[in-house]
Amino acid sequence: MTSIPKTINKDLQRERDNCTFNVQELICLLDGGAEKTEERKKREETALREGIHLDDVPNIYLSHKEKYEQAVKKACKLFKMIRKLQEEENAGMENYRAVLGGSLGSAILSDGSPLTLHYVMFIPTLMGQATVEQQAYWIGRAFNLNIIGTYAQTELGHGTFIRGLETTATYDASTKEFVLHSPTLTSYKWWPGGLAHTANYSIVMAQLYTKGKCHGIHPFIVQLRDEETHMPLPGIKIGEIGVKLGMNGTNNGFLGFDKVRIPREHLLMKNSKVLEDGTYVNAPSTKLTYGTMMFVRVMIVHDMCSYMAKAVTIATRYSAIRRQSQPKPDEPEPQILDYVTQQHKLFIGIATVHAYKTSAEWIWQMYNNVTAELESGDMERLPELHALSCCLKSVCTSDAAACVERCRLACGGHGYMLSSNLPLTYGHVTAACTYEGENTVMLLQTARYLVKAWQQARGGRQLPPTTAYLTVAADSRRHPPFDSTVEGIVHALQMVAAGKIALCVAQIEKRQESGMCYEDAWNMTSVQLASASEAHCRAFVMSTFYKETSEKLLEVSAPLKLVLMQLVEIYALYWALETVGDLLRFTSISEREIMKMQSAYEDLLSKIRPNAVGLVDSFDIRDEILNSALGAYDGNAYERLMAEAMKSPLNQEPVNQTFHTHLKPLMQGKL
User: Fold this and answer.
1) Which of 83, 152, 605, 665 has its CA 20 to 30 A from that of 77?
2) 197 falls in which pLDDT band (50, 70, 90)?
3) Which of 289, 313, 339 is the last residue of a domain?
4) Number of separate domains in the chain
């Protein structure tokens, strides 16, 4: 059978030879410095040297049960390695995020990990919502993996609407215990990763009842399984929810309670408390419980960047080696990367990775700042962070799903092969569109903040930085001339967002004046409200991408400076052209300006074309992490496709038994 050549594909090598900037310089810039690049490479080398990512039989050929068992085996090896890294580097949660995220983590556990929620939900919730005493008891055990936890919030009948959760936790003052109960089928917890067969503890979100009064949703730590035998404890009804589109190693589970008793101290009481006699003590603010969800949403944006970088690397490299059609008679078939339609599909993906990576770093810094402010009782910027994390999670995951699917289609039929790693990557990103808050609901959460912000701007109130543009829009009497520079497009996108928000507020008020209650007026306006939130998010991402990149330009060489600005410009022009209808409604753009932007966009495609492979090489994704027959660094896609095909169990014998049992009798008329 064909072996994989040890040389680089000639077309791919020529692309690299023609690159106009220093790839290593961009790698270090994306990592945050040469030292960070070295740390990442060392981490990757350590992980891959362990061989955890290697499979005797490719995961795709295993049964559902075997996939879970392999995922547990790999996850245990991975977490042993993480613990070793932590001891060596004295690193905290940031190290777990780096290893578990959409890059290295998804390479080792390509179909999801049953232990991820232990680190990204269970431990952060303990850190954010447990008292000092509770942390002293639980966090050490959790960090050392003496116990394995998950986070059970979503129920069969309720997801994003947390107030509607039905699981109850009723305080019994006579025994100083909470009684957890699932009163209906729809109150069963449904979806938590690792819940089915992996975790033996869980943070459970339940309606707290004491002295006959409900105090809303609160977090409890609940033991699910015996620490020695792993058998479910009495009253715990637990299992797996079944096969999904992707992430089938995650071990998503269901959980029901039949009057399960837990000690009073198992209510996480950093914020709200229940005293021994059942007296309920309010938290200083109900918003203090947002921390864990915002942490996860910020992490999701980082992960989406990793998945998009993988997809666009695979598709761009494949497009450089794939030759197809003959537009000019008697000339060789061109690389499909030379087709402008292919450039249109891929180059926006490259720019999008840079845009969201910049936004992810910005909001990560904001999250850390706001968390520090919360510790000192300052909650002023919490609503802004909550609104921003909601819309950014929604728009980023939606864009990631579109980007990965566009890359798959750009690879033609071969992109449909699981060995391309594009279908599995799509399974990861499309899942993110519904977990940690379904995207439309997330946009409507942001819309509530934006409606209030617009009303404040109209009243002359000062607004936080990310909505300050609303003040300008509220004071403006006419549209300024449209300007198709990046700065002009940023301003135009802000005017679109402001215009949409203003229309929504006007619609809600008009409907109320006609006798409709506020809730119905909101629902009737909700399509426009979601659109306004998306516009706000796009304005934020564009503005942040432009500002942060402009600052980075001071640190880089002239050739790289040119390429980075081309990415900012193409991102701005792409979204201006995608939302041209909105620009016509809310700005003074003319048809002439639209044609000018279209020409500028097409010119940029041709300018970026020589650096396309260099740009995806700058994401610096090792072949073991990319895990794609189409996208390997050497470009030998056809040989790799054949090698992967030969791993199929059906190719291990020349004649399958069904020939004798079914086909031959059919062909001989003996059925």
Assistant:
1) 152
2) very high
3) 289
4) 2
pLDDT given for residue 444 in this prediction? 96
In a domain, 202, yes or no: yes
Domain-embedded: residue 430:
no
Please, what's the largest Cα pairwise distance for the chain?
Answer: 91
Last residue of a domain, one of 610, 625, 649: 610
In whole angstroms, what is the distance from residue 320 CA to residue 611 CA? 11
Is residue 56 a part of any domain in this protein?
no
- Cβ-count burial of 591 within 10 angstroms (0-12 exposed, 13-18 middle, 19+ buried)? exposed
Q: What are the structure tokens assigned to 612, written together?
A: 């396309």
Catalytic residue among 166, 436, 534, 569: 436
145-182 residue pLDDT tens: 899 999 999 999 998 788 899 999 999 999 999 999 99
Distances, alpha carbon 563 to alpha carbons 318, 515, 541, 549, 610, in Å: 22, 56, 19, 11, 11
Task: Single out the residue of 365, 290, 263 nearest to residue 129, CA to CA.
Answer: 290
In whole angstroms, what is the distance from residue 148 CA to residue 142 CA? 6
The answer to whether 436 is a known catalytic residue is: yes
**CA-CA distance, 540 to 392, in Å (whole number)?**
9
Cα distance between the two ends of the chain: 37
Please state, in angstroms and rounded to a whole number, the distance separating the CA atoms of residues 365 and 348: 26
Helices (DSSP H) in 459-557: which residue ranges?
469-475, 486-513, 518-524, 526-552
Q: Give the CATH number of the domain where residue 267 resides.
A: 2.40.110.10
